[in-house]
Amino acid sequence: MPAPAGRAGSDRPSLADLAVPIIGAPMAGGPSTPELVHAVERAGGAGFLASGYGSADALLEQVRRVRELGARRFGVNLFVPDALPADLDAARAYRDELAPLAAELGIDELGTPRQDDSGFDAKVAALLADPVPVVSFTFGLPAPGTFRRFRDVGTAVWATVTSTDDAVTAVEAGADVLVVQGPEAGGHRSTFAVADTPGDVPLGELLRAVRRAVELPLIAAGGLTTGQDVARALEVADAAQVGTALLDADEAGTSPGHRAALRDPALTTTAVTRAFTGRPARSLVNELVRRYDAVAPPAYPALNHVTWPIRQAGGAAGDTRFIPLWTGQGWREAPSGPAQRIVADLWAAAETAARGGGAASSGRMQR
Ligand SMILES: Cc1cc2nc3c(=O)[nH]c(=O)nc-3n(C[C@H](O)[C@H](O)[C@H](O)COP(=O)(O)O)c2cc1C
Q1: How far is the CA of 326 from the centre of ligand 1 (A)?
Q2: Among 40, 75, 104, 234, which lies 20 to 30 A Cα-Cα from 11?
Q3: What is the DSSP string of 263-290?
């Protein structure tokens, strides 16, 4: 696969140059740490910082730490604010629905629904002033001209898409690489508008459809936790982006409760729900999902603020019944241990799977 032409910069992580075509997914809310990013790079892949939440200053501090550790091939992920304001009335109604639960948990007050872009413009400005190799965008595309400005400072721009239509839109907007996220993925679905219903075309099929429609390098994401999964994805894609496979890695900042939930036999399934943030996201099904999924409106990020006190209390108490347990469908296979070893083992298993036939007879696995 050719590297995007004409964009100099020794730090640019061309997918073709990765010794191991595995990308450590951005995982906001704690799991992505500079140490995790560095460990994925040491295994031959590339890692991502997640800056969907938090301030521009916190992001720059993480970038500084990644560099201090010696990482050179890494990216930063940003959440693109929705074009439309969040439906605050719907979020207030949801807060009323949650009031009995807050009372049960001894929480005085739920969060105030509000609009919030998590300092998106400040983060863009910070990353233009202090460029990193890659910036990936989730939840849509930034304002026209943003891709060009990043490219001008030597930063590759990746767009996360969940449908062929969005893939075409991202290509037309000038993305360098597409992260194609299937419905199996843990965490938020990268739909372009809050109210969009995410598609349910399985990753393999979605990848093939996107491959037919566009010519950019593709990164597959969603449910890739075994070598077989990765090998199959790389029949079409140029790299595999894994999140859940790294959730229980030593270097991840995943909360103890979230880690424990991955091994909890009482949690038997995952579902895509708006119950925590107002945007569709795949979580293990816990009590909050069971009780409130049906009444959660599409009001991101307002619901994120509404549910914050519940999540904070649950996190502090190690009580996993009411916190988001973002997890992909392959969570049962998620390994634990050092991330470098997890990535190395995953890649070795993918190569074995490809050699065993049945998977990956062409494409990236042949390198
Ligand atoms: C805990 C968690 C947090 C996530 N946070 C982000 C994020 O901040 N930005 C993003 O683009 N994707 C995020 N995702 C989605 C991942 O980028 C990726 O699409 C997903 O992890 C792939 O599916 P898998 O979890 O089955 O490997 C998150 C996923 C998880 C599990």
Answers
A1: 8
A2: 234
A3: T-TT---EEEESTTTSS-EEEE--HHHH
